[in-house]
Amino acid sequence: MEVDCNPMELPININYDEDDELRDFEGTDVKDMRLEAEAIVNDVLFAVGNMFVSKNLPCAEDMAYINVEIKEGTRYCLELTEAGLRVVGNAFDRVDEGSQNQYHETVYSMLDSLSPAYRDAFGNALLRRLEALKSERQSDS
Asked: For the GSKIP domain, which residue ranges apply (predicted)?
């Protein structure tokens, strides 16, 4: 999973107490899936009907659940792990045991496979941004 990060927001000095359970992870790249899930929601919210991190299903450093309603009106519960994103339920906050849906490396590929309206919204947002950049360049000339 890729998440944009502003280096200025990262702590410079982190001190770990002897009893701190995270001290063994100092200097390693440990992802917090709750933070990843929030970043995913913020990144694609414009192109779906509704999307939010589940408050009813358990979230941990290695797993989070995201509820999404695509523009076509269908609702899904997504599981986010180091393996990627996958649909685990066909309703908000619903995990169907034994779900064998494939993992997607990015939220973009998942939504692209689930929602033609997502593709349109994403393409239109990209086009608007390109047109804005073109206008900026022309006004600077």
From this structure: 33-133
Q: Is residue 80 in some structural domain?
A: yes
Residue 135 phi, psi (nearest 5): -65, -40
Average pLDDT over residues 26-51: 84
The CATH number of the domain holding residue 121 is 3.30.2280.10
pLDDT, tens digit, 9 for 90 and up, residues 65-118: 999 999 999 999 999 999 999 999 999 999 998 889 999 999 999 999 999 999
